[in-house]
Automatic annotation (TrEMBL):
Residues 1-246 form the ABC transporter domain. Transmembrane segments: none annotated. PROSITE patterns: ABC_TRANSPORTER_2 (PS50893). PANTHER family: AMINO ACID IMPORT ATP-BINDING PROTEIN, PHOSPHONATES IMPORT ATP-BINDING PROTEIN PHNC. Gene3D superfamilies: P-loop containing nucleotide triphosphate hydrolases. The gene is phnC. This is Phosphonate ABC transporter ATP-binding protein.
Amino acid sequence: MEVSGLTKVFPNGTRALAGVDLTVEAGETVVLLGANGAGKSILQKSLTRLVEPTSGSVRVLGTEVTTASSGELRTLRRRVGIVFQRINLVRELSVLTNVIHGALGRAGTPRNWMAITARSQQRVEAMEALERVGLAGVADRRAEQLSGGHQQRVAIARMLMQRPEIILADEPVAALDPRAGRSVMDLLWQIAADEGMTLVCTLHQLQLARDYGQRVVALRDGTVAFDSVMSQVPDSWLRELYADEDDGDVPAFVEGLPS
């Protein structure tokens, strides 16, 4: 990925991004860190033009995203797996059907709308994806019957059905309890390592960034505040990163940092 001079200004005048430059190499795992409103999610959504940038350029997997046609964007988005904060499963359908839906971008036949009508090849691949995330045993259950952590694992299995080359995870554990969140983070990092995939994960939680972020790109007010190996980031940088947050939102780790 190559991002150069990226800006995003909304019609009401809010400047979400103010000249972001970023390069991510193939196979790299990167955490985008920052306070609420820093521009993390807008930057990530700009990578596949789910948000239309105001200016600047984005190149992903050889595609010039900012000038790509609708057909080129569809092709690119099939190669990029996205894990959202809102899990967006079809709650009334089975876990297996939800996972099979991940293949619709490359095999958009109506047969894949339901597990019972999908081709055997798609069902087998979906079961393999569920096995990968440790949930093969609940394939026949309705998605709404699972815990939040398990639903996010189903969403990851659905993403794997795309056969993506890049994973973009946008606050994937924000709605989960700490134990379930770490389980999902472990899973994402293991998949990226096993497949040699590029992973960009947006986080608000500083401690998770400390534990998982080998490379951390921190955003503040729509610009890159620092881009570093997490183990080399001084505490003063982290305190400054969250300085404007309300007391109730400041991570406990930041509150304990020396001034």
